[in-house]
Amino acid sequence: MRPTTFVITYTIDMWHRKDLFFIALIFIITMLLYTPLFSIPFLYDDFDFLFSWTQIQNTHHLPELLLGNTPQYHEGVYRPLRSLLYVVSFGLFHHTLFWYHMQELMIYLLCIGFVYLFTQQLLGKRMVSFVTALFFGVMVSHTDNVANLTASFDTTGFLWALISLCSFLHFLKHNKQRYFALSIVTTGLAYFTYELTLILPLLFILIAYYKKHPIRWKLFLPASILALVSVATRVLFAIPAKGAVLVDLPAKLLLLAQGFLLYFLLPFMPLPSDTPTLADYQGTFLFSASPPHVHTSAQIISSGLIVGIVFLFLLLALTF
Questions:
Q1: 189 phi and psi, to 5 degrees?
Q2: HSE of 231 in the Cβ direction (CA atoms, 13 Å)?
Q3: How far apart are CA 257 and CA 306, in angstroms?
């Protein structure tokens, strides 16, 4: 069986006809809401990746891309599969904006579908899965990520991660090795597309614990080994660090707490677009060697960070 047929066959096998109906309804609602997407021009990093990055414009530079080549000013990451996706997309679309929007919308819809499937497999309640996936699809906080072409290439890593999680859950339920194999394959694809997916081994452990499944090391060893391989490859290819992550860490953790709060509040209490918050600069602060001074009590209270921390602890308590 071909790899693509393997993935498609056993992924479809996880769905039920009633699930497909709910997912189709969510897709229709999401696509209607995202119709204005096609009027958005190239923005932000789109020019760095799709215009200035000449290495993706033909297949002669594939070795460089596999070794970690990135556009200027975007060094410090190792995402070779994302680079290969750029090569394929540029080869198909060149600079035709419409097809890039179609691609990012399809990636987002697939993420929504697997959010539904993951929730359904985890809880076994279709209405809860429907509401969860619908809320995820229309979440206003996701708009910027979907509308930004280059961000959608990163989102592919999370798509692989969602497929991996769904496959792992299906394996726990039915004990079919092919689903475990699919989970491991998509885990590796996720790691080499977007490094934030390296959290997958921990998620596997939490899922097994929640489903009251025996936590055996054999279940998590392959994903952990792949994570180590990903990190070791980065070291081997001498990929430079993106920035000083540990510098002023307490202030950055406070900003992260506020970011969580805003993520959940924005769908219900949208802020004016011209109202800056500390979370707007969260990414810059995370990798900056000289983040702004947010240490004083007055600054912390006035910026809502205390509320963010309390909310974060409440969210963790609710999760457990």
A1: -60, -40
A2: 9
A3: 8
CB 276 within 8 A of CB 225: no
Phi-psi region of 58 (alpha: psi -120 to 50; beta: other; left: phi over 0): beta
**Of 82, 69, 67, nearest in space to 152 by CA:** 82
Give the mean pLDDT of the chain: 81
Q: Quick one: tokens of 248? A: 């002023």
Between CA 183 and CA 166 the distance in angstroms is 8
Answer for the pair 241, 281: CB distance below 8 angstroms, yes or no: no
Question: Which pLDDT tens digit goes with each residue over 33-65?
Answer: 888 888 888 888 899 999 999 999 988 999 999
**Selection from 130, 104, 204 nearest residue 161 by Cα:** 204
Angle (CA) 143 144 149, round 5°: 110
- Listed in sequence order, the DSSP H helices in 211-273 are 217-236, 249-265
What is the rounded distance in angstroms from the CA atom of residue 105 to the CA atom of residue 19? Answer: 20
| DSSP conformational letter for 41 | -
Which residues contact residue 127 at a Cβ distance below 8 angstroms, ignoring those fewer than 6 apart?
none
Contact call for residues 300 and 251 (beta carbons, < 8 A): no
